[in-house]
Amino acid sequence: MDSTSVIIIGAGMSGISAAKTLSDAGVKDILILEATNRIGGRIRNTYFADLSVETGANWIEGVHGEEQNPIWEMAQQLGLRTFRSDYSNLSSNTYKQDGGRYEKAAVEAAIDESEKIHSLGEKYSETLPPSGRNDISISTFQRLENKIPSTPLEMIVDYYSYDYEFAEPPRVTSLQNTVPLPTFDDFGDNVYFVADERGYKSLVYNLATMFLKTNSQGVIVDPRLQLGKVVTEIQYSGDGATVSTDDTSSYRADFVLVSVSIGVLQSDLIKFNPVLPKWKILALYEFDMAVYTKIFLKFPFKFWPDGDDREFFLYASKRRGYYPVWQHFEKQYPGANILMVTVTDEESRRIEQQDESTTKTEAMEVLRSMFGKDIPQATDILVPRWWSNKFFRGSFSNWPLGVNRHEFDSIKAPIKRLYFTGEHTSEHYNGYVHGAYLAGIDSANMIIQHIRDGFFEVEIKPKDS
Ligand code: FAD
Q1: Does the CB atom of residue 343 touch ligand 1 within 6 A?
Q2: How far apart are CA 153 and CA 102, in angstroms?
Q3: Active-site choice (34, 54, 61, 311)
């Protein structure tokens, strides 16, 4: 093991978790090449109105279940400041497009109906053959039950149930692979919001410092982590790989592990030499990179109802997904006067392309229709742009209709000494931080097995098994 070298592309959760697994197994000759000047990837905090806010991953999802979510365990060890998100009061906090709130009973009825269809969907999903060849979209199942959300109230409840989790509409999302969702089934239904000055990224940093050298200030100074290295080409064969970066450096190793997002793999940022086989390209392009955007707004004073039972509120627009899910920060940062609104998919793409002042005007109009004309103007706005960023191309993968086990296995399958990892390769938890962490361990173990046995047997499920 000692003499084997591995290059890992990307220092997000999966790349760092893979590198640590390799290091623990005695593979010390590792080199992590990261395009940006930081580790953490899609886990990133920034300062907004003097407070640390998470522009990428925010929640630890799947907590207090039968199995322990490894990310929750890490957060506990580090004493990360987290807050359980309680969505049980949405029925009292759902606003109409034309002003005023819906009657609690009306929202409750819409939620009950949505949950009923969801439970039926779970049962139906379990009857489908494992190959996925009879998979349908969530919307198709709703149609089968003659229940297509069509009023603003039904649409916002539907949005909250699906788009708010998967960042894509139920029309494209696979029923079989998301209903029930293994994350909540295995790890529990609770989700915890991270609001910590050190950032959610401190979990990645902590993992990295378990095998990378730091200086007395805690800064990683290990030459095996190279920041600002944009990989542009990977030449691979049965003997090893050569990786080139945009500063004309090149690096040689026995193995290469690619942890960039599926959005990046679908772009032309990295050239593969030889070109990836057709089955691999097809599988990579079939999976979806969804876009999820949290917009932060700062106000001179609070005008929304506060209290834990008012933390989350919904805006039921006739235009599905228009500034739909809102959250105040009074619990996390009392007196901060910050609101966060989440948009996804086409709305995210549209908003990424317009300037902040237009977005602020739109958000203010929505807030005025909820809280009246006299509310103060937002003094500041922050709009993260994950989709436009060439190192990410979106926020997280979503399992679309049309991708079966065969295609999914093909996404992660290695070719010669070229291996793949990242949240999109996670066996059960694609899209999540814990998925990225576990995928990193899995892919590293595949390489370790290859080193030990001289080969790695890929198991790709046949198309119609
Ligand atoms: P990444 O973090 O993308 O790591 C890949 C790394 O590769 C990046 O650092 C990138 O800079 C680097 N890279 C890219 N191209 C190159 C190149 N050419 N050369 C070198 N390096 C390159 N998950 C949750 O569990 N809970 C949440 O609440 C949640 N919310 C989210 C909200 C948003 C807005 C976003 C963006 C993500 C969210 N996620 C959430 C998903 C979670 O953040 C990701 O699943 C996880 O962080 C992905 O880790 P990764 O290592 O697979 O990929």
Answers
A1: no
A2: 8
A3: 61
